[in-house]
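Re: beginner question about structure tokens

> Can someone show what the tokenized structure looks like for a real chain? I only ever see the sequence side.

Sure, here's an example I had lying around. Input first:
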Amino acid sequence: MALTKESLKRLTGATDKVADIWLPYFNKYLPKYGINTNERIIAFLSQLGHESGGLLYTEEIASGDAYDTRTDLGNTPVVDGDGRKYKGRGLIQITGKSNYQGFKDAFGIDVIKNPTLLGGKLSTNSTPEQLKNSLLASIWFWNRANLNTLADKFDLSKPINEKNNLDTITRITKVINGGTNGLSDRINKFETGRGYVESTYKNLVSKKIDALPIVLISIGVLALGITGYILINKKVIKF
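And the corresponding structure tokens:
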């Protein structure tokens, strides 16, 4: 599924301007890193859309001071500014020195010394490098948590409130958020995206079916022409 501007807007809640900024990055990096099926793309983007306020925020709005002594996130146990330095960044809001170090190890981009390489405050004022890193950090977190495996459990032929689908989006949300904050918005974005993809697919199939008689007639005419040519050249038919 190659993303269009409209599908990106529907899946994330992005505005026209923001969707235009992000579209080439998503179409370049999602297939490269295995987020390459409808189930995976819809699951990934509906989560990112919530975490980033419609792909607008690449940095947490809060100061980050609340994380300053969070040793479980790799920050030091003393109040030394680690929380603010390694606050949530990237579209999926990776947080804490451990996550920043993990991203650095995976991509060789030194976000420990330069945390803002993961994004400016807004996507609309971020550099191309910050935009790329913001998305890569989100993909890194998603793949490290093996969330494609969960996304593969979705059945897109059924609504999100079907038990399996609801259980799956809840599990993914808990991995990303640590709880179920914003679950209803994530569900709404998922269902909007699922409905859009479903209707787009049906329209595509319908157009192909409508075109089928024309294709068959064209093939038939071509076949008759070729047959006639062969028979004439073999002098089976004389004029």
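Each token stands for a local structural state, so reading them left to right follows the chain. The chain has two domains: 1-56+145-239, 57-127.
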